[in-house]
Amino acid sequence: MAKATHPSLFLIYFISVLGSLTLANEKTWCVAKPSSEQGTLLANLNYACSQVDCRVLQKSCSCFVPDNLINHASVAMNLYYHSKGRNHWNCYFGNSGLVVLTDPSYGSCIYG
Prior knowledge:
Protein name: Glucan endo-1,3-beta-D-glucosidase-like
Distance between the termini: 54 Å
Order of helices and strands: HEHHE
Low-confidence stretches: 1-22
GO cellular component, one term: plasmodesma
Number of strands: 2
Largest sheet: 2 strands, antiparallel
Keywords: Signal
Shape: globular
Radius of gyration: 17 Å
Mean pLDDT: 85
Oligomer: single chain
Strand order of the largest sheet: 1-2
């Protein structure tokens, strides 16, 4: 005799899938979690910039200011996240990345 699936498990699965589909159609960005350790942020910055063009973080470029590690890591992580197709797993960064629905752009620094 086949075992019946509990209706609430199906509903949770359906909501989970639906939520993923909804997020995929929304504009999203990847930023560093504020609680991230400095060493983790530096590793994220170095890794992301080894994979994508991070020139916007150079002195006198649009995203250099504020000149701090969490800002630079967030910009680099977002560049990487967008270059890889905005998949939630491309913002994981060892659980130090956060997918957000609010555009983190500021001044002339456009997160894209």
